[in-house]
């Protein structure tokens, strides 16, 4: 490509340059500048700009934020209590995780309540969308579909239909014909997003945009896309298990602490109101190397089973694999156990797995990892119906974790008799929380070994 026909963009901040550089001079990010074809024609302003006058902040009514429930409690929770009129939401996730299914189900729920919705698919034909729709259930006449990639056509339809909610599936397949660059390029994504942003704000249409993710797990296209939208949702999960977790990594209208849990079934996504019970279904009764850990996802405590397989290695370097948790953290825990408890783990392969398909990276999972490894190594079971949580430090000390009382309550609710937790948190529990469940406060990993010997 001739030099004068290309331009260089920073994928972090969107700054434009005439030549490549290792570091963006605007945001100082390294290796973020990529080459993109220069746009020849500027597309005509698609949504007329409205002239606004400054107003005193105190005079703006708070009722301006209208929220519409989606009919899916888990989705509403992640959005911060429903859809905000005029917001732009980016929904992204791995291929085949269920992004289209989730948004289609949301559209069906909305259209059933006579809210006009418009679903544009650039990836699938109407027949394919219909096949998926058949899986989900019946749709009303308020829901309009369009299989189209041309943003000019979509713009015309959007302006004439003026739906309350529009879905663009996906932004990487849409093209503004006025631009020279291909679909999915930085220029296209940047222009289309700024058009959709204006459309959302000026016409009060809530726009959901589906975005693909790259191998590294970030949204394909400039990171700037995430800056431009109001909310960024990530749909994640292990495709080998039915569980899917919806998280918001950015939300201008709510907390990013909330998660939504779904299960992908034959007839679409089913909301999981009690994730702990689902995560533990099929768990074996008291086996060596298995423990229930209480983790916190946002404000929700979730019980998960942590399993460890510890066996003599037949390699020069012992193998260590962690699934559903951080491998580095697991390695750290193994080193702590080796040093502080004298376990001969250097001659063992260790495999740790958080069963159920959830990915837990919060430090409170440490206690689950440590207990499962000790139990797996010693081939001894832990007391039946025991749950555990706590952060383990490098000295072997067990440290406090947030929301200990909430975690204990969840364990008690699910019928657990014993809870192993940090001593400092256990001392602060009130009588009500601790009633009906035996609390074992530990201050060092050495206490855990004693505990195992007693069981
Ligand atoms: N009959 C079925 N029973 C159970 N699950 C199904 C069935 N049909 C499809 N699925 C699930 O739905 C997923 C596809 O969902 P969907 O098309 O919504 O994903 P997507 O995230 O939009 O994918 P893409 O990135 O390709 O657009 C499949 O990967 C599969 O897990
Ligand atoms: Mg899709």
Overview of the structural elements:
This protein is an alpha/beta fold. It has helices at 73-79, 99-112, 126-136, 151-161, 186-203, 224-228, 275-280, 327-341, 366-378, 404-413, 423-428, 431-434, 445-454; strands at 6-10, 16-17, 33-37, 67-68, 83-84, 88-93, 117-121, 143-147, 165-169, 206-212, 231-236, 243-251, 259-265, 268-271, 290-297, 300-312, 320-323, 348-354, 386-388, 391-392, 398-399, 418-422, 438-442. It has 3 domains: 1-38; 67-273, Rossmann fold; 278-454, Ribosomal Protein S5, domain 2 (2-Layer Sandwich). The chain is built from 13 helices and 23 strands. Strands 8-7-9-10-6-11-12-13-14 form a 9-stranded mixed beta sheet, with helices on both faces. Strands 17-18-16-15-19-22-23 form a 7-stranded mixed beta sheet. Helix 8 (327-341) packs across helix 9 and helix 9 (366-378) crosses helix 13 (445-454). The longest helix has 18 residues, at 186-203. The termini are far apart. The mean pLDDT is 87. Magnesium ion binds at residues 99-100, 123, 169.
